[in-house]
């Protein structure tokens, strides 16, 4: 693994209806519905809702809708049905569930997809994955099909107080995704200096910065070992969807912002190659007023 992170938890904002052949990107980017007085509906992401106006982020831009024109606001869509379906014992949550958590957390100032970097050794070698930077110093990685992941991994390159805080927060978050006391006990029993434990289908693992496959970061993951092996691809296929670590990060795990254009180009090509597994959604950030803004893939 190779990666970087900071406080809080994660996976993808979107309204749901998972039907084969549907336009995944469209629904994922438009989780909210506004019903107007004439019965018509607008779909998008509500980024502001005050006493007079609702601001809706649609695919082509933002629109301000006077409250006097609105009959009803449905800001959860079919999310309830989706969440009920995904909490299956022994499975990991889809990435959109985590992003749904993030978008409602004011501590998350930015959440951005970055190129996945090559992991050339260890248990995650040759497993395709999505990689996201949270704020500036935290990383989240989702391995395999993001809708039904085989591994969730979180890491941080920071030291001292930052990493201590991260360790506490991320364990608390992961515990909220688990179904049994035995799983939660195994999660909290992990030795921070390096350890792994398994309960049922799920294995929990900690990699310290000194581990060969930690790339200088501290990592915690939970995964299904059997399904992980089935997700492994050839080295040739793997290199098509990853970049060398030093083309994305500095030696201490900070993002190379000056290469953002090259990163965006790589991600666009990767998204097209993965087709339905890769959403249009690339992340979000909060402006100076604290309003949510979306980052989407170029069309």
Explain the overall architecture.
By secondary structure, the chain is an alpha+beta fold. It folds into 2 domains: 32-75, Roll (SH3 type barrels); 86-280, no CATH class. The protein contains 8 helices and 14 strands.
**Biggest β-sheet description:** 9 strands, antiparallel
Anisotropy-based shape: globular
Question: From the alpha-carbon coordinates, what is the Rg to the nearest angstrom?
Answer: 19 Å
**Which percent band covers the strand fraction?**
25-35%
Number of self-contained structural domains: 2
Mean pLDDT value: 78
SSE class: alpha+beta
Q: Ranges with pLDDT <50 over ≥5 residues?
A: 1-28, 77-87
Spatially, the strands of the biggest sheet line up as: 10-11-12-9-8-7-6-13-14
How far the N terminus sits from the C terminus, by CA atoms, comes to: 31 Å
Please tally the helical runs, counting DSSP H or I stretches of 4 or more residues.
Answer: 8
How much helix, percentage-wise, in residues?
Answer: 10-25%
> How many beta-strand elements?
14
Order of helices and strands: HEEEEEHHEEEEHHEEEHHHEE
Label this structure with key terms:
9-stranded antiparallel beta sheet; disordered N terminus; 299 residues; single chain; 8 helices; 2 domains; 5-stranded antiparallel beta sheet; alpha+beta; SH3 type barrels; globular
Please outline the helices and strands:
Blueprint (H helix, E strand, L loop, with lengths): L23 H5 L3 E5 L4 E9 L3 E6 L2 E6 L3 E5 L4 H8 L8 H9 L6 E5 L14 E6 L3 E6 L7 E6 L4 H15 L5 H9 L5 E5 L2 E6 L10 E6 L1 H7 L3 H6 L19 H15 L6 E6 L5 E5 L3
Antiparallel strand pairs: 1-2, 1-5, 2-3, 3-4, 6-7, 6-13, 7-8, 8-9, 9-12, 10-11, 11-12, 13-14
């Amino acid at each position: 693994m190779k990666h970087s992170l900071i406080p809080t938890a994660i996976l993808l904002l979107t309204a749901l209806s998972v039907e084969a052949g549907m336009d995944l990107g469209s629904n994922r980017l438009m989780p909210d519905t506004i019903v107007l007085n004439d019965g018509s509906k607008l779909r998008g992401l509500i980024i502001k809702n005050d006493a007079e106006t609702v601001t809706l982020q649609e695919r082509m831009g933002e629109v301000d809708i006077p409250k006097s024109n609105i009959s009803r606001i449905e800001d959860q869509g079919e999310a309830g049905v989706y969440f009920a379906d995904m909490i299956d014992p022994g499975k990991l949550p889809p990435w959109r569930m985590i992003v749904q958590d993030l978008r409602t957390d004011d501590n998350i100032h930015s959440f951005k997809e970055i190129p996945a970097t090559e992991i050339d050794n260890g248990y995650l070698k040759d497993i395709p994955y999505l990689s996201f930077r949270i704020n500036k110093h935290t990383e989240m990685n989702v391995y395999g099909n993001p809708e039904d992941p085989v591994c969730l991994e979180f890491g941080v390159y920071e030291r001292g107080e930052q990493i201590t805080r991260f360790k506490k927060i991320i364990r608390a978050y992961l515990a909220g995704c688990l179904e049994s006391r035995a799983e939660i006990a195994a999660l909290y029993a992990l030795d921070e200096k390096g350890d792994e434990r398994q309960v049922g289908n799920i294995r929990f693992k900690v990699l310290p910065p000194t581990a060969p496959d930690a790339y200088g970061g501290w990592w915690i993951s939970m995964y299904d070992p059997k399904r992980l092996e089935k997700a492994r691809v050839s080295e040739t296929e793997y290199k098509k969807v990853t970049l060398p670590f030093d083309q994305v990060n500095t030696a201490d795990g900070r993002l190379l912002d000056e290469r953002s254009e090259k990163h965006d180009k790589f991600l666009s090509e990767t998204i097209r190659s993965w087709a339905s597994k890769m959403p249009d959604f690339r992340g979000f950030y909060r402006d100076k007023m604290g309003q949510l803004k979306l980052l989407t893939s170029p069309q």
